[in-house]
Design brief:
Blueprint lengths: L4 H15 L5 H21 L15 H5 L7 H17 L10 H4 L3 H13 L17 H17 L10 H10 L12 E4 L6 H10 L4 E6 L2 H13 L6 E4 L9 E2 L2 E2 L2 E6 L34 H10 L1 E12 L8 H11 L3 E6 L12 E7 L8 E6 L5 E3 L2 E3 L2 H13 L7 E5 H6 L21 H6 L2 E2 H5 L2 H6 L1 H7 E5 L2 E4 L6 H7 L1 H26 L7 H16 L7 H26 L6 E6 L5 E7 L5 H8 L1 H27 L15 H10 L7 H38 L5 H42 L4 H21 L6
Parallel strand pairs: 1-2, 1-6, 2-3, 6-7, 8-10
Antiparallel strand pairs: 4-5, 7-9, 8-9, 10-13, 11-12, 14-16, 15-16, 17-18
Helix pairs in contact: 1-6, 1-7, 2-7, 2-10, 8-9, 8-13, 13-22, 19-27, 20-21, 20-27, 21-22, 22-27, 23-26, 24-26, 25-26
């Protein structure tokens, strides 16, 4: 059975995290990722001539595993494995596997390293077989581990990793996929960290491009080099050093220039000028713009990027929002950049996306190719589009897609994006703070004073629901009737609002049309999904499928196409991705597997069987519906009898009840009590209750046995059905009954949400203005008079 990506990720993380002990995650990651790297390159390249990675004799993962349990395991790993690999492949700053301060000493170190190596000995982790061509399973696992380590590392230690979602946005807005790229196309990251951002751009290019990166931290630059290899970019050139003070990529004495540059530099670097005299910078990065403040290095990195771009180059840099509005020296630099036309766009991101800081950031997009004559900047405020993910926020697939779509098309959306003319920016003294140009605040739900005083729903509030009335114009008349100019009354009882909406012929027609719209997409998508075969590329599959679904729903009324798109992407991440990778590896095979669990003594127990690719419930629903219906009836009967038993025990469980004399209500105690009171005429009522309990208990027991037998029979029948399934039957079950059915439910959920939103808003307006103030005042006066009357009758005078 093919290795599931989700299982790979979670098993690696849970095992590694369990062995971390008290070591800081930012340090522990070095050991885990090096092990992953050695395991991968050993599986992939050991013994292969002309491989891009050299595995010296005696330095493979197999050789490392042979060291388990040895008292000098750490020293032996350093000498026999790490050093030969590093020297043969120019890998710098590998971690010390014999460091007692991090790994413990003596037996603690031996056990920790032995157990850590054992995690990667899992037979399923044969990376020579489990790497689907075109899909970096191991590279993705590396990213998964990096993200978790960054999350665990705490403030100021997450700089080695740029969130993959942000990297995807940057890669796509550069437009590299639509450019004519080749091995001569160059991509550079001057603060590359572990290389994730650089790799996302390479992946987006779609063809082999040449990658360059520089990273100040020696250990992190080593991670970047390994990351390049894991992502099948072994020729990428990663250099270690301070980019601003000692840039490593030069053409003679000048900075080397590149086609594309991306970066996520350290925010507001206070030491940016260490080792550098900005006033006499040999590379003239600040000459035409100004020198950044001593304690704010953000523009130093942006100006380095600009200087590192070819005359036709494009770049994108993540910077804190302060660069958009801070004054003094930074204001001068910003003014010069805008006047020269280098800033193409600014994208405001949600807060708390980045590891190491919670402050909001933005992406500044620079473009030299179109700088001449640029008379405006395209701005996007995407700060509201995200999901919570533990302590951090994350961009969803739909957020990424919307940003890229809007930026690529330069499409203006109220409250989200607009192209701001240079003249408007000049009027604001070159302040680029996004709220000055985009009002992304949600409109306030205002209270209408006249409506509260005189009653009636303000017509302006009803007009605000125009998107609904465009689809169902007659529904408005069915829900509201005129009151006076500018105000309406609810035309139906408040309890009937939902029924009026759901039952209106126009709304029914809308739902029917949307159902037909989904069926049209289903008819187009299903043949392609059933045509998948071993060797397919899952990432291409989801890209094609999701883009088609998004395009299919664009322009449809009321429904947000990006919401529909997100449902598919969520289902892909949770379920469909693993299925697609299994098809890519093995084809359409629905094989069952026994569930074996070990108890505390290590004894194995058979807990049944499973098939994640084709769950039992789908086979039962299609081939054994009658048996399942019978089981459902038995379960319902059992639930009813159990409920009656519980009621009986509760009803007669008090001090005077029939069960009062019993220590515990069970069959033995009830029978014993019946024998005690058999000849007692005063205990007839008690005996009747006890006999009823016995009858219900026997009925419950019989139903449990019947249910257990029926479930076992159905389980055996379903288990026996799997080997009989043809490939076409498996395709039908997986594609129609599993994948499409799940998406169908989600899309129908969107329809329900639309109708519920309208129902909720109409009811809210009706209740808000249902009772005018004079009537409320009269009610209060009447209630006050009644209370005063009661008080007077009780002898109290209340004034």
């Amino acid at each position: 059975m093919a290795l599931k990506k989700s299982e790979l990720y979670s098993s690696l993380w849970s095992g590694c995290d369990e062995l971390r002990g008290g070591m800081d995650a930012s340090q522990y990651k070095d050991y885990v990722l090096v092990l992953l790297f050695i395991k991968y390159v050993s599986d992939k390249y050991a013994g292969q001539p002309y491989a891009p990675i050299t595995i010296p004799p005696g330095a493979s993962f197999k050789d490392m595993a042979a060291l388990k349990g040895k008292p000098d395991i750490g020293d032996q790993i350093n000498k026999k494995i790490i050093a030969p690999l590093a020297n043969a492949n120019q890998l710098s700053e590998m971690p010390d596997f014999n460091d007692p301060n991090k790994l413990g000493s003596g037996k603690e170190m031996v056990d920790r390293l032995t157990n850590l190596i054992a995690i990667f000995e899992d037979k399923r982790l044969d990376f020579s077989k489990n790497r689907a061509d075109g899909d970096d399973i191991l590279g993705d696992a590396y990213e998964y581990l990096m993200r978790h380590f960054a999350t665990e590392s705490g403030k100021s230690k997450g700089q080695f990793y740029t969130p993959a979602e942000v990297s995807r946005v940057m890669a796509q807005i550069l437009g590299i996929r639509n450019a004519s790229t080749s091995a001569d196309t160059t991509v550079y990251d001057p603060t590359c960290g572990s290389g994730s951002l650089l790799l996302k751009v390479a992946d987006e290019a779609g063809t082999d491009v040449t990658l360059y990166g520089q990273e100040k931290d020696a250990a992190t630059s080593g991670l970047a080099r390994m990351n390049m290899i894991l992502h099948n970019n072994p020729t990428a050139l990663i250099m270690q050093g301070n980019t601003l003070a000692d840039p490593k990529f030069l053409d003679g004495q000048s900075l080397k220039t590149f086609d594309y540059v991306v970066a996520n530099p350290p925010f507001s670097d206070k030491r940016w000028s260490t080792g550098l005299d900005p006033a006499s910078d040999p590379h003239e990065r600040f000459k035409h713009y100004g020198i950044p403040p001593d304690k704010q290095g953000d523009y130093a990195y942006l100006l380095h990027i600009l200087r590192s771009l070819k005359s036709t180059g494009r770049g994108a840099c993540i910077l804190p929002h302060g660069v958009l509005f801070r004054g003094n020296a930074e204001a001068d630099i910003r003014r010069n950049l805008v006047r020269k036309g280098y800033i193409k766009g600014i994208i405001g991101l949600p807060p708390n996306l980045f590891y190491g800081t919670g402050i909001p950031a933005c992406i500044v997009v620079v473009d030299k190719a179109e700088a001449h004559g640029r008379d405006g900047i395209f701005m996007i405020d995407a700060s509201g589009g995200f999901m919570k993910d533990g302590p951090k926020n994350r961009l969803r697939s739909q957020d990424i897609h919307k940003i890229v779509d809007v930026f690529t098309k330069q499409a203006e959306l109220p409250g989200y994006a607009r192209r701001v003319p240079l003249a408007e920016i000049e009027k604001n003294d070159y302040n680029l703070n996004l709220p000055r140009y985009i009002d992304s605040q949600q409109a306030e739900d205002r209270q209408d004073i006249e409506g509260h005083l005189r009653g009636g729903i303000p017509e302006a509030d009803v007009d605000a629901l125009q998107s609904y009335w465009d689809v169902c114009p007659g529904l408005r008349q069915a829900l509201f009737r005129p009151n006076r100019p500018g105000y309406l009354d609810l035309a139906v009882d408040k309890a009937d609002i939902r029924a009026t909406i759901y039952g209106h012929p126009e709304f029914t027609a809308f739902i029917d049309a949307m159902n037909a719209h989904f069926e049209a997409w289903r008819a187009r998508a299903v043949p392609g999904l059933k045509a998948l075969a071993a060797g397919c590329h899952p990432k291409e599959v989801i890209h094609t499928l999701s883009e088609d679904l998004l395009a299919h729903y664009k322009g449809r009324p009321l429904i947000n196409p990006y919401d529909v798109y997100q449902h598919l992407m969520d289902y892909w991440a949770g379920t469909m991705q693993d299925d697609a990778y299994q098809i890519a590896a093995e084809g359409w095979k629905a094989e069952t597997a026994r569930i074996i669990e070990k108890d505390k003594k290590g004894k194995e127990k058979d807990k049944g069987w499973t098939c994640d690719f084709l769950p039992k419930a789908l086979v039962v629903a299609r081939y054994f519906p009658d048996q399942q219906a019978a089981i459902d009836r038995l379960a319902a009967d059992l639930e009813g009898v159990s409920a009656r038993l519980a009621e009986l025990e509760e009803e007669h469980g008090g001090e005077e009840g029939a069960f009062a004399e019993l220590d515990k209500v069970n069959k033995g105690n009830v029978n014993a009590r019946l024998r005690e009171i058999r000849d007692d005429p005063e205990s007839k009522d008690e005996a009747k209750v006890l006999k009823e309990w016995l009858a219900l208990s026997k009925q419950e027991s019989d139903l449990k046995k019947d249910l257990k037998d029926a479930e076992a029979e159905l389980d055996a029948a379903a288990y026996a059905q799997y080997p009989k399934l043809t490939e076409d039957e498996i395709k039908t079950l997986v594609v129609d009954d599993k994948w499409i059915a799940a998406l169908d439910r989600d899309v129908h959920g969107e329809m329900d949400r639309i109708s519920q939103s309208l129902t909720k808003r109409v009811r809210e307006l009706a209740e808000r203005y249902d009772t005018p103030l004079p009537e409320l005042t009269a009610r209060v006066a009447g209630l006050e008079a009644r209370v005063n009357g009661h008080l007077e009758r009780m002898g109290f005078a209340w004034k």
